Amino acid sequence: MRRLGSVQQKIPCVFLTEVKEEASRKRDGQNFQVVATDTVNPLAVESDIHRALATEKLDGTCCYVTLYRGEPYLWARLDRKPTKQANKKFKKYQYFQKTCIGFTWNVEEDFRTVPESWIPARRVQYESGHPVPDVHGHIPGWVPVDSCNQQYCWHASVVDYDARAALVLRPNGEDEALLEIASVPLTELMEQALELIGTNVNGNPYGLGSKKNPLHVLVPHGILRIRNAPAVEYHQLRSWFQENDEGRVEGIVWHCNDGVLVKIHRHHLGLKWPDGDAFLNSRPVVVHVDQFPSDPDASADSWKNLFAALAGLTGCRFSSIRDVQLEA
Question: What is the pTM of this model?
Fold first, then answer.
């Protein structure tokens, strides 16, 4: 079976963690919390975390761009999850053992079916020819985004396969402090992981669009650099999240020089998210979306509504992405 994408089963926390028997602030129905200790993860030390690139962790849903049927395609994250009965056994084991280590899965019987096009993520481990679930009992994977599937309608709104383009939020090439919404050829995004954020994703912590005129964009992972990153030390990081303007983010992902990724989430430090206005909204944004499809063979009728609405705003500058309002 082909394996796709760079998403790991779980990006480790920059600190060693411990489990507290309290209801999770992040996952509904989870009767424990994973919290950071003040000990830096040996994996992070080994990967020279202090020289790593610190980037903003965005609150959205993960996507990936790679080939499907010979063409560049957007893929949505779809974890293969256990059946209700198997999940009940797994939770019971976790409750009594205080760990998931040692639990045995029957992947053929214990997991829900997925579309034939579903592909496990690249770093999923295999045993006896079957993918190994992660600590949450999920098998990370991907499914191609099809505009006919209503489950992924918001993913589909940011991509046009006839035009071979996607709507991307990124720093402006001439001014890193300025963000831009741009129509980008899918070929330029090949083999990249991106985060879909917007009106109908994760409660819309960034306040994008409106119910009547939703707005969604893709943000390449690692592209929003934290300019004045705090030292990797528990108390300094916690203070940074609470007191620094740049700290009004969901978390940090460090990109180490050896390719290892480590993260910290506000929940690891006992902090709320969202908590006030997000730092993303403090940055001005300009719109650069092509008026017509870049592919001369594509029909103008295929240029989707979101693309067309943003094309009408090309050249306009806003104080924040939250202020980008679309007309019906």
Answer: 0.88
